[in-house]
Amino acid sequence: MEEEGRKLLEEGIRKKLISPGRGELSTFPDGTKVVFHYRTSLSDGTVLDDSRTMGGRSKPMELILGKKFKLSVWERILITMKQGEVAEFTCDTKHTALYPLVSQSLRNISIGKDPLEGQRHCCGIAQIHSHHSLGHKDLDHLQANPQPLVFAIELLEVLTPGSFQLDMWAMTDKEQLDSVPQIHEEGNALFKEGKIKEAMEKYYNAIACLKNLQMKEHPGDETWIHLDQMITPLLLNYCQCQLLQGQYYEVIEHCSSLVFKYEGKAF
Fold first, then answer.
1. What pLDDT digit, counting tens, does each position of 160-196 carry?
2. 18-30: pLDDT as tens digits
3. Where does the PPIase FKBP-type domain lie (predicted)?
4. Pairwise CA distance, residues 129 & 146, whole Å
5. What are the start-end ranges of the H helices in the chain?
């Protein structure tokens, strides 16, 4: 453990153990799924994000290791933790430059928006230097003034490869695309049973999957348009769920974007 702490310090990461975990430290092979709560703070203690309260609900973060998550330092610190452990990691600026973009996506997800909304078709570093607004004053300030961040992590579960159903985000592009119609049908079945929240989550997962695939295509190309056409009925189903839950502002926002998109087009 002392050697690991020394390595972290050399990398510009300082770990503070809050509560020890249980059992042995996992070897964390690629494909391991980690489930954890996180709280992100500035060095002065100002909290930016907390997975226990984001979007008005407590929802832990899930990562599959080895999939090149945009904020790579999270993978680096998680592999030093035991299941059940709570620790704080102070990470130098070189590790936190992309956090504003990651936070924007996570905040979008927490309120049911497209996780890629507001992000351009360019790499993360280019987005950081483009100085466009992320839609949150604290993230805009952090983007303009990169600084060390403190991540308080509680590692809830460590699931070894093969011990869990493969997550959609770990599938190949073809597997993801082929899974969307089934997810859509599952959402429709849940909606008919009156399970609105569960149906809403299915629709959202399918939309986010298609948006992710769409980001790999050039806007206006045949494949991009096909994916866009697949998104529309899912988004309308999603809005129907939001309407039943009284989320009127979000429904207006999504439907207005669809009206704008198809304005002047004949069907």
1. 887 766 555 556 778 788 889 989 999 999 999 999 9
2. 999 999 999 999 8
3. 31-90
4. 11
5. 2-10, 72-78, 93-96, 99-110, 124-130, 137-144, 173-192, 196-214, 222-244, 248-262
pLDDT score of 68: 79
Spatial distance between the Cα atoms of 179 and 171, rounded to a whole number of angstroms: 10
Indicate if the pLDDT at residue 204 is higher than 80: yes
CATH 3.40.190.10 is right for the domain spanning 2-159: no
Q: How far apart are CA 32 and CA 40, in angstroms?
A: 23
- Cα 70 to Cα 62: distance, rounded to the nearest angstrom: 14
Distance between CA atoms of 232 and 215, rounded to whole angstroms?
Answer: 16
> Do residues 13 and 6 touch, judged by C-beta distance below 8 A?
no
- Domain borders along the chain are 2-159, 168-258
The span from the CA of 24 to the CA of 91, in Å, is 25
Same fold for the pair 2-159 and 168-258: no
Nearest in space to 59 (alpha carbons), one of 106, 114, 17, 113:
106
Domain 168-258 falls under CATH 3.30.1600.10: no
CA angle 136, 137, 142 (to 5 degrees): 100
Q: What angle do CA 249, 244, 234 make, to 5 degrees?
A: 80
The residue among 54, 93, 94, 89 whose CA lies nearest residue 74 is 89
Q: How far apart are CA 231 and CA 237, in angstroms?
A: 10
